[in-house]
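Late entry, acetoacetyl-coenzyme A complex.
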Amino acid sequence: MDFQLNEQETLVRDMAREFAQKELLPRATKHDREETIDPEVFPMLAELGLMGMTIPEEYGGAGMGNAELAIALEELNAACASTGVTVSVHNSLLGSPITKWGTEEQKQTWLPRLASGELIGSYCLTEPNAGSDAAAVATSAVLAPDGSGDWIINGTKIWVTNGGWAGLFLVYVRTNTEASNAKGMSAILVPADTPGLTVGKKEHKTGIRGSSTTEILFENVRVSGAHLLGEVDKGFMIAMDTLDGGRIGIASQAVGIGRACLESSIKYAGEREQFGRPIGAFQAVQFKIADMATRIDAARLLVQRAAWMRDRGERCSLQAAQAKVAASTAANFAADECLQIHGGAGYTDDFHVERLFRDARITEIYEGATDIQKIVISRNLMG
Ligand code: CAA
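Prediction complete; structure with ligand written out below:
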């Protein structure tokens, strides 16, 4: 057992930290207020290899694993969680499944364009009546009647991260209405410029406001049969396995937000004086900082274990769910305590604290709410 980052992991952490602190942190308030990410950020991310972290080098990616992706995501999210989730979804929910299940043609067509940042990736699972119950997807894909093997897609997806700027969507559709819900879904790659695909309502969110969250509407969207990812009717398994990786990404996001809260609290507690001494001299504040640090460190270790298992090709549904529960709970605890330590100043937008407080909240909701993670955990333990 080794708790030290190796040479490559250390390089990734230092590179991502320098970029995040220099380029993302100064933009984070602007991203939040303007509800978008500065477009020049995407090429910078790609230049550093952050848009193709787990894509093999032969397809233009960085050829790394989930461990390095988690380390990079912690750094990005400690500075700007809107950018952090954009990168997490792009890598874990699109680059990774194409790498794992794509045909050679699909890999050659899409992976270099994702790794270079030419295309942003997105994942369309949730629908108005299929949220936590992901197997209830109703968006349909039927084979074209002309015998061409093309799929024709109709339906509506919601809460689509990267919806407004994605060039490629991985869309989960119902291809079999006779089978049970989970056994009649497929995964299809749909380029954003396919006729009939439109970006619908943009959500105005409590936090991660710079990220793009939209509806995506499909009206007789026709794609070639070559766009099917994996086997027909096996899409639910792809969706769930992909989310195991995505949940490690969101857990990393939570660790990053929590760490930013901790660092801000330590700094403020050393500077702010009351009753003739820095507030950090009071045990009430010291204990808050001790609790924040302990929960964040514990969460990071669970993230690293889940990422390590996934990189070994082992199923990590249990460990990814545990990491997500621990990290999202730690982030919200840290954000709450951080705001309390900053007092009235933290409640204004003079500091990043109120943004961190708002950004932390979503980590307990998306890519499977905490209660869903507890279902995954208990099913893995109890059957
Ligand atoms: N890997 C591989 N296979 C898996 C799997 C995994 N992680 N999880 C389940 N499966 C398989 C099961 O083994 C089972 O196969 P068999 O029938 O052959 O045994 C099949 O899939 C069905 O599994 P379940 O019976 O567990 O399915 P369920 O309908 O009870 O659902 C659930 C389980 C955990 C509740 C699941 O629906 C779930 O995770 N829901 C939450 C969905 C979610 O996280 N949505 C977020 C969308 S993305 C987002 O938030 C926006 C964004 O862009 C960031």
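The chain is about 50% helix and 15% strand. Will revisit in the morning.
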